[in-house]
Amino acid sequence: MRLTPILTEKSLQDAKEGKYTFLVDKRLTKGEISRLVESSFAVNVSSVRTANIKGGEKKNVKGRIQTKKAYKKTWVGLKDKGKIELFEEKTK
Length: 92
Prior knowledge:
alpha+beta, Alpha-Beta Plaits, 4-stranded antiparallel sheet, 2 helices
């Protein structure tokens, strides 16, 4: 299954609080998402929150209609102050 991290300014702020944001397949359940994160990053998951983002149509600059696909966004909380290194900011 595919697990794509969301690396935005807001998601990096949430990562400092222990909440990590991912895009996942729409068909995955919370239990499957939990097992997927645990196996991918070797951490213990405490909570999983999900939101289904609907697709739609949007006009681009030239006036052509483009379709946006629907997706599922998930926020994962970790036990024991676990960290996922992918979300850590590098300091100079």
